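Structure ticket #2291
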Amino acid sequence: MRFPLYSIRAAVTFGGLVGLVGMLACSNGPTVPTPPPTTPTTTTATPSALAVSCDTSALGALGQSAQCHAKLTLSDASTQDQTAKAQWTSSDASRISVSAGGVIAAVAPGSADITASLQGLAAQQKITVSSACAFSISPTSVSFPASGGSQIVTLTATPSGCSPSTWTATSPDSALTFAPTAGEGSASVTVRAAANTGGAVRRTVTIGGQSLTVELAEAPAPSPMRTLSLTLTQGENLGGPWAGTVTATNGYSCTLALISDNQTCPPLGVADGTKVELVVALLPQYANLGSPIWHTTGCDTATNTVCRVLMNGDKRVTIAIGAL
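Resolution: structure written out below.
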């Protein structure tokens, strides 16, 4: 069967429209452009705090050194060691010094603040160094005569500012004393020695832990005792009898009474070589009636009131009291 030509063309045309409609029906709609990917925002952490820490366990004596560290804390809580970049200073470099790298050194006893500075921040740590005192004395020995006396000994504590600096002075002999007996740091100590009554003395005393030798000379042998025997008699008896008193050293006294022609006085004991003065005075009611001494025997020298005797042996003396 043959179809007309126009019918075939119509079918083709219609079929093309159908296919186009079908394609449009399968489409999701209009095309929307895809946006470019978003780049995340980056936040930079900023310095928030600075801390200093020094290893003081390595700083136990003068001349030793230790390392300090500077730790920077950022705003995100992270930390950084900024020891090399920090600026380091000491509040007293004469005691504790610090290098550009944060190394501290003990120069002298005492304290100093070690400070690290960085990016407008600062932190510090107080460092203290102590040094035990070493004591010395000068002189290291002193000598005294048998009569004793006092001398000054200089006690020196080094180095300056050392600690502890307390000291005491002690002696095994109560005859050796100190002033003061204790103190702190350098001082002048007076050593006193009592008179020696025996043989030579050599003692070792201690001042600030240092030994001081003290020598005390032997006491001289006591002089032998001498005896003065004194007799008082009446002087020229024209206006007598007389009454008078003789006095001498150590409270010695002997009186010739009016009714006595003579008086044997107690013996006077003195050391060999002693000079004795026998002073004579009439009793007050007769003081203006004559000279106290009429004459003497045994005196080395005599006046009308005094008889002087050098006791280089036992002596016997007679004094006649009173005369017109």
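Closing remark: Residues 1-27 have pLDDT under 50 and may be disordered.
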